[in-house]
């Protein structure tokens, strides 16, 4: 029979605790989520949190990586697997409509909302998430530019403007989900947004395979 040494911290499931921390940050944002609320949600004491994860900042970094693996990957898949940028971005928006309103987790996007409101002490966290959002916008622009080079879009296409437009749609969908929009609501937004897509040039080449730009990051 195994006995626990008096005073020794009780073992806990690190992976399960990390999942609960992710939900707390996702629901409340980085700054509003305190060590006390984290430990209460994770079912551990502060010394165990510090021993297992370092500090709040390091814990948040792990949560962001987990979020990217589970949710941010849909962007990379859409942009690399579809044969055209139009189909890739339409798929990306549809899948975001489903993910942002999935009742199994908090609404919206962690990368967009976690530092929507923050003080100077969280400036480094906000800048890190901002860089992730800009990287996603750039990956969208790269995918559009690849289709311009391939002759699938007219050469007058405003690549930067179009990428910025769709990045803004993504951010707006996240906010709408937090305000109670349904999956159907966001799918309608996604469908309407695609009306901004440029018309194809005369006699565009038929895409035989996805036009693959450099692999985009998984952050949203």
TrEMBL record:
A Pfam family assignment? TetR_C_13
Composition bias, Pro residues: 197-220
Q: Where's the HTH tetR-type domain?
A: 11-71
User: What SUPFAM superfamilies does UniProt report for this protein, alphabetically?
Assistant: Homeodomain-like (SSF46689), Tetracyclin repressor-like, C-terminal domain (SSF48498)
Q: Which InterPro entries match?
A: Homeodomain-like_sf, HTH_TetR, Tet_transcr_reg_TetR-rel_C_sf, TetR_C
Residues annotated as DNA-binding region?
34-53
Q: Which UniProt keywords apply?
A: DNA-binding, Transcription, Transcription regulation
Q: Can the keyword Transcription be found in this entry's annotation?
A: yes
Which stretches does the entry tag as region Disordered?
Answer: 195-220
* Signal recorded as keyword: no
Matching entries from Gene3D superfamilies are given as: Homeodomain-like (1.10.10.60), Tetracycline Repressor, domain 2 (1.10.357.10)
Q: What is this protein called?
A: TetR/AcrR family transcriptional regulator
Q: Which organism is it from?
A: Actinomadura miaoliensis
